[in-house]
Amino acid sequence: MSSDRRRRARVQGGWAAPVPAAAAAAAGKGKEKAKLASPSPPAWLGKNVDHGPAPQKFLFKEPQEVILKYKLYIKAGVYDISSEPSGVARVRLFPSFIEANQCEWMYEQLFSELPWRQRSDVKSGVSYLQPRLTAWFGDFPYSYSGVRHEGNKNWPPILAMLKEKLEENTGCKFNSVLANLYRNGHDHVPWHSDDESQLGNHPTIASLSFGDLRLFELRKKAPLELRANLPEDYQYTEYVRVPLDAGTLLIMEGACQEDWQHRIKREYHDRGPRINLTFRVIHPETE
Ligand SMILES: O=C(O)CCC(=O)C(=O)O
């Protein structure tokens, strides 16, 4: 059995439920791309969970958002998504930045070698378990929404290699990475801007994806004076969607954090696991 076949066999008997597409591909049937399944759970899984509130019964609520209009970006390109009020907000998109035949082993190494942990956000004094796992590497500690990641300079070789490849190809330098593991379609990151003072003005954030495809969305904030009088769903004027699949690099720069918010939407149908790496420049904390 080739090492690739052996890996597939282990994957199918492991943590994730067997994925029909992967099973068909392993059996040599069908030409469709095999859906990525998780390898066996690493030892840290289940231990590194913040103490959050008792699990609550999930109540399905019909999404209430009013989507006014959205643009869909799929092709490689440089997209200026707005030019005011804080300057140009730019998104650069590079599908297949990582070659397709490299994505699977990179995903597996990231999955098994990063110290994934489920942390808690604090909003209005209430603690919520984040609907995803995270890991942090960087010269300095990084804090947001009540979460604090301590500085961690022990970059695993896979992350150091990806950072170097990014820097060579983009001309940007990064000193940290926030890694997100979305275990299934329910894992998500809600609307937010990466606008903490530690990121400075107009931060450049390079986001690299592995694993299953997820929809990345951006929405433009309405002018402040209008937002004050509008219900939450009407406080945004434009929407952008970018499907992010394995190997895709997306860079946000300019006024993306000042004038826009972004999210990975919760899905209501099945999705395989996905890992996203957001490379950033973090400045030391000031008192
Ligand atoms: O997973 C993604 O593509 C986005 C992650 C993100 O928004 C963040 O880490 O701030």
From TrEMBL:
Reaction equation(s) it catalyzes: a methylated nucleobase within DNA + 2-oxoglutarate + O2 = a nucleobase within DNA + formaldehyde + succinate + CO2; an N(3)-methyl-2'-deoxycytidine in single-stranded DNA + 2-oxoglutarate + O2 = a 2'-deoxycytidine in single-stranded DNA + formaldehyde + succinate + CO2 + H(+); an N(1)-methyl-2'-deoxyadenosine in single-stranded DNA + 2-oxoglutarate + O2 = a 2'-deoxyadenosine in single-stranded DNA + formaldehyde + succinate + CO2 + H(+); a 3,N(4)-etheno-2'-deoxycytidine in single-stranded DNA + 2-oxoglutarate + O2 + H2O = a 2'-deoxycytidine in single-stranded DNA + glyoxal + succinate + CO2
A GO cellular-component term linked to this record: mitochondrion
EC id: 1.14.11.33, 1.14.11.54
Stretches the record annotates as Disordered: 27-48
Fe2OG dioxygenase domain sequence ranges: 173-283
GO function terms (MF aspect): broad specificity oxidative DNA demethylase activity; metal ion binding; mRNA N1-methyladenosine dioxygenase activity
Cofactor(s) required, per the database record: Fe(2+)
InterPro entries with a match to the protein in the record: AlkB-like (IPR027450), AlkB-like_sf (IPR037151), ALKBH3 (IPR032854), Oxoglu/Fe-dep_dioxygenase_dom (IPR005123)
One GO BP annotation of this record: DNA alkylation repair
Keyword Iron: yes
Protein's cellular compartments: Cytoplasm; Nucleus
Pfam family name, one: 2OG-FeII_Oxy_2
Assigned keywords, A-Z: Cytoplasm, Dioxygenase, DNA damage, DNA repair, Hydroxylation, Iron, Metal-binding, Nucleus, Oxidation, Oxidoreductase, Ubl conjugation
Annotated function: Dioxygenase that mediates demethylation of DNA and RNA containing 1-methyladenosine (m1A). Repairs alkylated DNA containing 1-methyladenosine (m1A) and 3-methylcytosine (m3C) by oxidative demethylation. Has a strong preference for single-stranded DNA. Able to process alkylated m3C within double-stranded regions via its interaction with ASCC3, which promotes DNA unwinding to generate single-stranded substrate needed for ALKBH3. Can repair exocyclic 3,N4-ethenocytosine adducs in single-stranded DNA. Also acts on RNA.
Subunit comment: Interacts with the ASCC complex composed of ASCC1, ASCC2 and ASCC3. Interacts directly with ASCC3, and is thereby recruited to the ASCC complex. Interacts with OTUD4; the interaction is direct. Interacts with USP7 and USP9X.
Protein name per its UniProtKB record: Alpha-ketoglutarate-dependent dioxygenase alkB homolog 3
